[in-house]
Design brief:
The chain is of the alpha/beta class. It has helices spanning 23-30, 48-61, 73-86, 100-104, 111-129, 153-164, and strands spanning 6-11, 36-42, 65-70, 94-98, 145-149, 168-172. It has a four-stranded parallel beta sheet with strand order 2-1-3-4, sandwiched between helices. Strands 5-6 form a two-stranded parallel ribbon. α2 (48-61) crosses α3. The longest helix is centred in the middle third of the chain and has 19 residues, at 111-129. The radius of gyration is 25 Å and the shape is elongated. The chain binds iron/sulfur cluster. Residues 11, 13, 16-17, 44-46, 70-71, 75-76, 100 line the site of iron/sulfur cluster.
Length: 196
């Protein structure tokens, strides 16, 4: 893997982030981090123009790692992975930082703290991005079977639920009988019946 060339993209999300976090300052500081060769902000990074900005920077600056500081990865990680893939970069070379839900939204009235936290998160993300390696997908045949370890009530129920899906289940219990703690109770609330 060649030397890391990291690009950092800090999103305004309109005013969602930029209304609290000093996005320009975070971007400026990010540009001074080791191996960061390009840092930029965008109004809406997930928009078509925002993604194009990333792809152009990958080509222009020879980026081989990308950090996007924006919203939760749950929301747009697939978007940015696809964006990287389209410009020939392995999607695993993306690192996302959540500076919206994790910073601007939870520290709405504390802009200085929100900015400091965003900066910390970006620094950590860049440090991680510098060590990222490309991952490749491999497919293996799998056996449609499961093993449940522990034949207590939870184990028995889990085994039954899996079996209901049509899969073979191996239920493994170290003791001589099933039932676990439940099998040792002579009464259970509310019926006060024997547990078994
Ligand atoms: S990438 Fe996330 S934070 Fe940025 S504009 Fe899109 S939704 Fe907002």
């Amino acid at each position: 893997m060649p030397e890391p060339r990291v690009g950092v993209f800090v999103c305004h999300c309109g005013t969602n982030i930029a209304g609290t976090v000093d996005v320009e300052q975070v971007c400026r500081l990010a540009g001074s981090l080791p191996d960061v060769v390009h840092a930029a902000t965008a109004k809406y990074t997930c928009s078509e123009s925002g993604q194009k900005q990333i792809q152009q920077a990958v080509a222009e600056y020879g980026l081989n790692r990308v950090v996007v500081a924006a919203c939760s990865p749950r929301m747009h990680e697939p978007t940015f992975k696809a964006c990287l893939e389209q410009c020939g970069l392995n999607p695993s070379l993306l690192e996302m930082v959540n500076i919206r839900e994790g910073c601007s939204w939870v520290h709405l009235r504390e802009p200085a703290k929100a900015t400091a936290k965003a900066w910390d998160l970006v620094r950590m993300a860049v440090a991680k991005a510098r060590l990222l390696e490309p991952l490749t997908e491999r497919r293996f045949p799998i056996k449609q079977a499961a093993m449940v370890v522990g034949g207590g009530i939870a184990g028995i129920q889990a085994a039954l639920d899996i079996a209901d899906t049509g899969r073979k289940v191996y239920l493994v219990e170290q003791g001589p009988c099933l039932g676990g703690i439940m099998a040792q109770l002579n009464k259970t609330y509310p019926t006060m019946d024997c547990a078994i």
